[in-house]
């Protein structure tokens, strides 16, 4: 169960910020299509300073979450070992 939670957290932190907000392109009905070709794909602009800072921040948050999860897992193992010794 803990491994599943850890995997979910890693996947959530690895997803891009706007992944869920992308809307599909609307195609014109067949009767309204023209003889000209549709415009080509749009080329994304190069990453900015703000994008780089956001990526760094997400990386740091992800690493911190993994470290904290590791501490929790190790603490539970230590507690379980102590409980078995006293029983």
How would you describe this structure in keywords?
mainly alpha
Descriptive account of the structure:
With 87 residues, this protein is mainly α. It has a domain at 1-14 and 50-87. Helices cover 59% and strands 0% of the residues. The chain is built from two helices and no strands. It has helices at 2-14, 49-86. It is elongated, with a radius of gyration of 24 Å.
Short description:
This protein is mainly alpha-helical and 87 residues long. It is 59% helix and 0% strand. The chain is built from 2 helices and no strands.
Layout: helices, strands, pairs:
Blueprint: H1 2-14, H2 49-86
Helix pairs in contact: 1-2
Unreliable spans: none
Biggest β-sheet, characterized?
none
Strand content: under 5%
Mean pLDDT: 81
Number of strands: 0
Separation of termini? 25 Å
Silhouette: elongated
Task: Tell me the quaternary state.
Answer: single chain
Give the radius of gyration: 24 Å
Helical content class: 55-70%
Q: Write down the secondary-structure element order.
A: HH
Q: Please work out how many helical segments DSSP would assign.
A: 2
Structural class from helices and strands?
A: mainly alpha
């Amino acid at each position: 169960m803990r491994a599943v939670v850890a995997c979910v957290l890693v996947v959530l932190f690895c997803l891009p910020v706007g992944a869920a907000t992308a809307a599909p392109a609307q195609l014109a009905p067949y009767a309204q299509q023209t003889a000209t070709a549709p415009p080509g794909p749009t080329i994304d602009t190069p990453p900015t300073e703000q994008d780089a800072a956001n990526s760094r921040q997400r990386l740091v948050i992800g690493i911190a979450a993994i470290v904290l999860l590791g501490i929790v897992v190790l603490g539970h193992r230590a507690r379980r070992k102590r409980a078995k010794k006293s029983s």
